[in-house]
Amino acid sequence: MVPGKALERIDLPVERIPDRWYNVIPDLPRMPEKYLDNRTGQPVTQRYMERLFTPAMVAQESSMERWIAIPEPVRAAYAMWRPTPLIRAIGLERQLGTPAEIYFKYEATSPTGSHKLNSAFAQAYFAKRGGHRRLVTDTGAGQWGSALALACRLMGLDLTVHMVRASYHQKPYRRHLMETYGATVRPSPGVHTAFGRALLAEYPDHPGSEATAVSESIECVHGDDGARLAVGAFSNHCLLHQTVMGLELREQLAIIDRAPDYLVSSVGCGSNMGGMVLPFVEDKLDGADITFLAVEPEACPTLTKGEYRLDFADASGEGPSVHTYTLGHEFVPPPIHAGGLRYHGCAPLIGLLRHEGLLDAVAYPQTQVFDAGSTFARIQGYLPAPETCHPIRAVIDLAAQCRASGRKATIVFCYSGHGLLDLEAYARHNAGELRDVEPETFTAEVAA
Amino acid sequence: MVPGKALERIDLPVERIPDRWYNVIPDLPRMPEKYLDNRTGQPVTQRYMERLFTPAMVAQESSMERWIAIPEPVRAAYAMWRPTPLIRAIGLERQLGTPAEIYFKYEATSPTGSHKLNSAFAQAYFAKRGGHRRLVTDTGAGQWGSALALACRLMGLDLTVHMVRASYHQKPYRRHLMETYGATVRPSPGVHTAFGRALLAEYPDHPGSEATAVSESIECVHGDDGARLAVGAFSNHCLLHQTVMGLELREQLAIIDRAPDYLVSSVGCGSNMGGMVLPFVEDKLDGADITFLAVEPEACPTLTKGEYRLDFADASGEGPSVHTYTLGHEFVPPPIHAGGLRYHGCAPLIGLLRHEGLLDAVAYPQTQVFDAGSTFARIQGYLPAPETCHPIRAVIDLAAQCRASGRKATIVFCYSGHGLLDLEAYARHNAGELRDVEPETFTAEVAA
């Protein structure tokens, strides 16, 4: 009558926090695409990059070292919550009647509730060590912004965050969190940059996107010599820092003697996907039968409907261009609640994996995604962020396929963050008020 | 230039989740006071208690067994997040320049973010096993309500929560969380009970209190034969379940070879205080020099300004009376943001410890408490719940005393929960809008 055991947890001791990040670039079938300077059409120079990023990040961006040591202060900061548990979702397996085993890498125990701190501490540390005074960044749902706000506070840096306007209003709690840590938060598009002012003049109801927020951040960095840009996804160095997840996962799967058949993750830009799958790329290239499955919103279907081509990384072309999957830098996704997935492009490394046939992708509408997240919360107890609801939606479908075929697959997904600061969206879902919005464009009505 | 190591974490493996709760009653200098039936003035009967609570809870309430086995399904549920880490706040020590060592038992990693799940899973399990269909409860800030909502969902029970009206409006996210887990949430005082209707008729702006919510819950249970009451604090059995914290803490302190000089905790009713200190009562009675320090809001100063006397446990006398510290059951605390601490009385076991001279107590105004919480978040990175800000405030003062005296004390406080769902209060604090309110009474203006 009382339900059976709902989960199994595979922990690592604190000593097993990885001491190095894995850089996939030397192991790829070909080099990732070069960033181009939009003013010249030529590959960006060292000088261009170092005006934008801290020198350490520029070096990591194109490093050919397979392993990069994690500085001790960053590892010490990771000890706030790492290693994160790998959890088997026995309750969900039972509910779905599947022979598959479903595991998730649970990143929600971090102080700000998501995997974003893995890179935030690294970028803040190197900025401080490099003598910079301030970081500037963009944030979608606010997961990255709040992580960087904490990291900057602990490392002793100022921070300005350009928060996508739709999320700024949908998710006031994340803004309060950033401000409590001492960051300055501005809605994007906003009045503090020429780009933002121009956009608002033309579209007063513009909901913003990660691309507009990046453009404003770059403009802001160019106006302050002591400032550098920090990015929560996209860049090779950010995905590099996130590999602590995949590295721990490898150890945890070894403990229970499992090899993954599916590694599933949401993709906005690709930071949690990259962090989980990059340490498994070599296995896949060596012939292991692992499916890397990216899950994205139908409202922003970069990998399923985008093109692999050269495009701006931001909305204005103030930053570099790069060859990757894109919906076009002028694409403004409708203001769905998975704010972290509202980006027109994706990380070049993720684009490359997709282009090389190493990465599968699927898209779901928002209502199905919240259904899956609610189901998961009611069975497993953990309330997932809207971004995290995406892989859960896909995993439920994979598990059903395994039920049909009888396959005892090992499915692992990245539980990138909790949804406690997204409860307004759950409340709307509970009330049946969420709608699926078409990706064509946005209107003031949809934004409301 | 980069700040030094900010923390040290002492973990226990998942196998070390306690397999029994510690019942302090056989070890106390005298028995806790008996509950009295207000209709007869006599000690409550078994029949009275079993109409209110599940039989297992009634048995635990007055058990003389020192150790009570934790049922395997409850232990399996604890594995969602237990054992919780013990963390040394090195950053705070450094900032305060204190020779004291400051540790905290970090309960915020639970899926609902606080220690309340420790008892929620136990009460839901025994209710389900006892054949009951539904639990009814009260909640202050919503920490207990959301914990019980999750536990009831996983154990397969219906749940009705009476949420203190002030928190119902201040903390909509916690209400959304309970509703996402499937609970029915009503503001208290509310229109679903005769008591609530009568109160609203007289005081339409009544902000409610834990006492009004308990009265409504009891009325609700009396109207439904399949329902029983669950309580997030107060009762002996609830404090019993919380001893998993203190039991783990003992092990963790043994690992680092420390004995506690101070155990510090917030007290609303006493569940986190009890859970942490009860397993150390015998040491104290045996002569160990440990100070148990309860920290409460000046706006609801039960232990510092209340009397030890017989009083109603709820607002209406629908439930039992008991001898403990109280401000009087008609006392309505002003709507401060630490909603979990707005109770006129305290758990009989906590009252007894205080009365026997085993428990010290101190009270702080809300603004000082939020200052301490913000300071802690900015130094240690973890954002504490308003309730948890209370012991932090006291620990900062203790550490300063140690700096003055040169004492290398070992101070441990209970980090009962995170403040991610209390960010509206932090936002008001950041904006300088929080006020310290006198405990005399409430007005519509203060409630606004």
SSE topology:
Two copies of one chain form a homodimer.
Chain A (H helix, E strand, L loop, with lengths): L7 E3 L9 E3 L23 H7 L2 H7 L5 E3 L2 H7 L7 E3 L1 H7 L4 E6 L10 H13 L4 E6 L3 H13 L2 E7 H6 L1 H9 L3 E5 L5 H9 L7 H13 L4 E3 L6 H20 L6 E5 L4 H7 L3 H5 L5 E7 L4 H4 L1 E6 L8 E6 L21 H8 L4 E5 L1 H15 L5 H20 L4 E6 L7 H8 L13 H4 L1
Parallel strand pairs in A: 5-15, 6-7, 6-9, 7-8, 10-11, 10-15, 11-14
Antiparallel strand pairs in A: 1-4, 2-3, 4-5, 12-13
What does this protein structure show overall?
The structure is a homodimer of 448-residue chains. With 448 residues, chain A is α/β, with parallel strands linked by helices. Chain A folds into two domains: 4-16 and 73-113 and 242-446, Rossmann fold (3-Layer(aba) Sandwich), CATH 3.40.50; 25-70 and 116-229, Rossmann fold (3-Layer(aba) Sandwich), CATH 3.40.50.1100. Helix content of chain A is 41%, strand content 17%. The first copy, chain A, has helices at 46-52, 55-61, 72-78, 90-96, 117-129, 143-155, 165-170, 172-180, 194-202, 210-222, 236-255, 271-277, 281-285, 302-305, 348-355, 366-380, 386-405, 423-430, 444-447; strands at 8-10, 20-22, 67-69, 86-88, 101-106, 134-139, 158-164, 184-188, 227-229, 262-266, 291-297, 307-312, 321-326, 360-364, 410-415. A seven-stranded mixed β-sheet of chain A has the order 1-4-5-15-10-11-14, with helices on both faces. In chain A, β6 (134-139), α6 (143-155) and β7 form a beta-alpha-beta unit. In chain A, α3 (72-78) runs antiparallel to α5, α5 (117-129) packs across α11 and α11 (236-255) packs across α12 (271-277). Chain A is globular. The relative contact order of chain A is 0.15. The model of chain A is unreliable at 441-448 (pLDDT under 50). Chains A and B meet through α3, α5, α6, α8 and α16 of A and α3, α5, α6, α8 and α16 of B.
